[in-house]
Amino acid sequence: QLQLVESGGGLVQPGGSLSISCAASGFTLDYYAIGWFRQGPGKEREGVSCIASSGWRHYADSVKGRFTISRDSARNTVYLQMNSLKPEDTGVYYCAAAGSGWCTVVDGGGHYAGMDYWGKGTLVTVSS
Q1: For strand 122-126 and strand 10-12, is the pairing parallel, antiparallel, or unpaired?
Q2: Which end of the chain has fewer CB atoms within 10 angstroms, the N or the C?
Q3: Element holding 125 (H helix, E strand)
């Protein structure tokens, strides 16, 4: 059974850091593109970052320079390191996998299309 499980969410103060994980079971992450998405209170889901099977990375403008996406093949896990967090980063963070292996950037860089599998999300709250 193909499954993605996010973990590592929590409460962090503005300016702080947090690393969240996306662990896969039933398939090998290396052959997929993995995207991170988030949905804040009262907002639509948006794309945050994506790593293609080739290793190519994309970041939304709102997180560029603050977030880093990485992949650990041995652990079959993708990470999102989030630094200099802001209250507007608050939301449920989801990871998703695209069997094409490509990060298909759409909506001017605000979303990623073509995702086949989704996790259930982990909540990140940035607040003092």
Answers
A1: parallel
A2: N
A3: strand 122-126
